[in-house]
Amino acid sequence: MSDSPSTPAGLLSSITEPGDLKRLTAEQLILLAAEIRDFLVAKVSRTGGHLGPNLGVVEMTLAMHRVFDSPRDKILFDTGHQAYVHKIVTGRQDGFDLLRQRGGLTGYPSQAESEHDLIENSHASTALSYADGLAKAFTLRGEDRHVVAVVGDGALTGGMCWEALNNIAATRNRLVIVVNDNGRSYAPTIGGLADHLSTLRLNPGYEKVLDLVKDALGQTPVVGKPVFEVLHAVKKGIKDAISPQPMFEDLGLKYIGPVDGHDQQAMESALRRAKGFNAPVIVHAVTRKGYGYRPAEQDEADCLHGPGSAFDVETGKLLAAPTLKWTKVFSEELVRIADERPDIVGITAAMAEPTGIAALAKKYPERTYDVGIAEQHAATSAAGLAMGGLHPVVAVYATFLNRAFDQVLLDVAMHRLPVTFVLDRAGITGPDGPSHYGMWDMSVFGVVPGLRIAAPRDAATLREELREAVAVDDGPTIVRFPTGSVAPDTPALRRVGQVDVLREGDREDILLVAVGSFVGLALDTAERLTEQGYGVTVVDPRWVRPVPIELTGLAAQHRAVVTLEDGVRTGGVGDAVASALRDAGVATPLRDFGVPAGFHPHGSRAEILTALGLTAQDIARDVTEWASSLEASIPVT
Ligand SMILES: Cc1ncc(C[n+]2csc(CCOP(=O)(O)OP(=O)(O)O)c2C)c(N)n1
Ligand SMILES: CC(=O)[C@@H](O)[C@H](O)COP(=O)(O)O
Ligand SMILES: [Mg+2]
């Protein structure tokens, strides 16, 4: 960047690396922040993405990159959805036209994109643990490098943060924790911690008062120790009077704040002081989610946390016509069930609106619990609720239940407790990338003794299987469905025990077992196989783990079995069906189709499934090739 920065209009285009920020004047930084906000709104309004969180961290991110030296110093983002500004100032402005699209920028930090990025996992409450380890490594290797971790007030409600803080407080490593306190996850952040932070947040920045005192004292001739003692006494008095924050200091952590996170100079001053401590320190920044863009600031639901697609810049409203979403079908049925069943209670992990629990909270606030971003606690708290005679419905995104496996296994299932986990965004989701794919549950939780998993294929079976799930009183259940618009209802021709027969061929050549949202794919595949001359039966087991025993009988009547699931193949439903056939002595050959175990790049759900060969055309081709290899056992007329 030239020594004399370009005209204000082109400031942003002149920023190609963090070093370019260090030459800007205070006035230019204000102009740059405005340009960045315009850039964020312009780009995200076309692609969708996490607008609210990123509008709230503009000054903070600029300050971090001016005070610290990335990538030598490491700046970590908890959850990572608020790293767009970081990407903008680290040479990736051009990539925002393809944000969250296949082949384009990811919506989270990405090591493949930049040496400035580290944490790629979009699951909350991990950054402080990474930071603890990284800071220890720098210290042990004798490297004079700082670690900065940005953690939101929502993420701070996650237990891992407190495990990390407990360890960090026992070190003297160079670690600056920036608490980005905007008072919200999606909705206002809940719990005692949130209340404590708001106590701090609502008091005037005692740091400002302190600076004023310092300035005043500074005019007198420096008298050394007595001045420091006076200053310290004043600071203690101010602290106790204005912003008691023993929580962090009792942990042994230095605390700076609350600081106005939109005051560039104040943020830089706080970060420079924190950097100078050369020890763990918390900088408590108070920000506003959606800051600087009225539709986001005024969005009471979630400050335009993450519009999923293009929206109108004037209003912030999505441009796409609304469709019936799986979540809404669940939400409405849950309220109907709650009307009939006073023992039904709902639990959300800081995602009441996105998971549909909000409707229950609206009608039965006393029977709905937001536990914060705390899925492990949600599962075991649900176990407690069940021990108390209630039937909890825990609604989370499928991917986030991964972290509560032990709780589901031993706190819920081992006690045979009636808890229903409703997993939204199950299967391949898309734009949020691999740490958001809900592809593991049917495999991981499929091994839990006594746990039953339902995978509805449409709205009618979601309602039916949700009711069946909450009727189970001797163990946990999972009901899982994908992101997006609900599939059209596919009525069954008949039901064999638990299993719905959806299509019958003129011969019993191939039994196609379709799991949940893959029923449509299975029916399309069946049509293609029929054109090849095969007789194809399509069935939906509905309850997929444990495998319904009727499948073994149906398999024995056919020459081949094919399974299709929107979940990881390894240990998935296909493997479970194969195991059941072996146990039943049914020798019918089986071919399973599912998501290969791996971290598949982001894109649209359709693009990713196509790339994985999970299309009717690809599957029919593969099945035909496979069947011909079996030849004698599957004659084609
Ligand atoms: C384990 C986990 N649960 C839920 C989510 C979904 N989620 C994404 S961002 C978010 C809110 C984060 O709030 P906060 O940490 O305060 O960051 P902010 O968006 O306010 O900047 C949630 C719940 C997640 N990413 N990870
Ligand atoms: C960062 C995060 O975990 C959520 O904000 C997620 O991006 C939301 O996904 P949906 O858009 O599917 O609700
Ligand atoms: Mg927040």
Automatic annotation (TrEMBL):
Its cofactor is Mg(2+); thiamine diphosphate. It is an enzyme of class 2 (transferase). One of its GO terms (cellular component) is cytosol. Binds 1 Mg(2+) ion per subunit. Residues 324-489 form the Transketolase-like pyrimidine-binding domain. Its EC number is 2.2.1.7. Thiamine diphosphate binds at residues 81, 122-124, 154-155, 182, 293, 375. InterPro entries: Dxylulose-5-P_synthase (IPR005477), THDP-binding (IPR029061), Transketo_C/PFOR_II (IPR009014), Transketolase-like_Pyr-bd (IPR005475), Transketolase_BS (IPR020826), Transketolase_C (IPR033248). GO terms for molecular function: 1-deoxy-D-xylulose-5-phosphate synthase activity; magnesium ion binding; thiamine pyrophosphate binding. PROSITE patterns: TRANSKETOLASE_2. Belongs to the transketolase family. DXPS subfamily. Homodimer. This is 1-deoxy-D-xylulose-5-phosphate synthase. It comes from Actinoplanes campanulatus. The gene is dxs.
